[in-house]
Amino acid sequence: MPKISRTTNPTSLHELDAKIFSVRLQTGKDGKRVFWLERFDFPASGLAPGLNLACVAHAGSTEEYFQLGKIESPDVTPHFINELAGDRPLKFRFVVYENGNPRLTAFADNIRAIDEAGMLGDSLVDIEPSDLQGAAWRLVIPEVKPGADKPVLQVERQLFPTAAAAAKDRWIAVLVMPEVMRQIADVIAKNIDCLEDQEVWISGWAEYLASFGLDELPDNADDVGVSQWVDAVVSSFCAKPAMKSQFGFAVAELMGD
User: Fold this and answer.
1) pLDDT in tens, 41-90
2) Same domain, 101 and 166
3) Do 153 and 104 fall into the same domain?
4) What is the Cα–Cα distance from 116 to 21, expressed in whole angstroms?
């Protein structure tokens, strides 16, 4: 069967919920990376047995293709991914197809390894090591328009050579992520009428913001109302257990405990 690229047009295909996939990533002492499919919830996929599953791992303009066998019992052994760029966000695309038929049946896109998920999860903000010429980090927020990509947190590559290193760093969590949340919340507040538009990137934040339990921001909110709502979003974000834990560790480190 011909190689299936991550650029295959998924129009009219059945899109699988990314939550039924669980991918793990490990980097050895020699710097070599492997990934494996930890879990695929076949019953939740709604697909018939006998179909084939494949994966396209990609980072920047580099990609590698892996056949993972039948969807009811996929290959879960580690696969080396040493041909991929190490300084760009690593993502996985899973595709389902029939034997001898290059036409795809279903797909799931933009899946990140659990090990690389940061404080805002793996689907809301990408982390990208970059040459920032003295700045430690910079948030790039795209326009709120159809086709625009999600926000990218650029980090100085001399400090964080990989996205995983930045995602796991407690000082990034404590000193950077609240401001990242503030800047994004401000953009969302000013485009609140687009929050349910599936064609724009801020729609991906609807479920996450709903988890805070805040009152909805009215479409006609004034500057004071917007500012208060953004403050509430940041406070709720910082109150999450993962953030409070990172803050506690940071305080303990400063105190020498």
Assistant:
1) 999 999 999 999 999 999 888 999 999 999 999 999 999 998 888 767 78
2) no
3) no
4) 15
Q: Do 112 and 137 belong to one domain?
A: no
CB 150 within 8 A of CB 124: yes
Distance CA 37, CA 52 (A): 14
Indicate yes or no: pTM above 0.70. no
- Domain residues for 158? 126-248
Question: Could you identify the residue written with the tokens 């403050």?
Answer: 231
**Burial of 56 (C-beta count, 10 Å sphere; 0-12/13-18/19+):** buried
**Other beta carbons within 10 Å of 45:** 20
Residue-wise pLDDT tens digits, 132-182: 998 999 999 999 998 888 899 999 999 998 887 888 788 998 999 999 999
Q: How many helices (H) and strands (E) does the chain have?
A: 7, 11
